[in-house]
Amino acid sequence: MICLNKLMQQTKNLLTIKEASQWASDFLKRDISKSNISYLVQYGKVKKHNGGSSVFVDLNDLKSYYDSYQGQREVDWKKKLGNDLNWALSFDHLREVDTTKHVHRLHPYKGKFIPQLVQYFIDNHTDDSIFKKASKNVKMKLCAI
């Protein structure tokens, strides 16, 4: 009987991907899609529990994950790397859908730079002369062919 109660208690904490997205949306007071939850499972941020043909996530794991995002991550990383850490470059405020543009969902692609990071460095750390020189060199090479 004790094992049955424990099993029932564990299954109360398991949510489907859809239920987890609804719970997270209510918890964070913003839209969290099923894709967001699938992403967390796919990248191992939240443990996956198999239930036949369905995937479940533990409510406590999900809560712990989102609790870590309530400003504590910035504090922890600054302790590790120093206060001169530019937290804006973490793009922590963006949704997963905004940082995975131009990527299919067939498998994770961990080596991809998110578009916002590339845009940041192009906008803030280049001037027009770099692009003019690059385009002039390309034109010269094309003319030589």
TrEMBL record:
Organism domain of life: Bacteria
Protein name: Uncharacterized protein
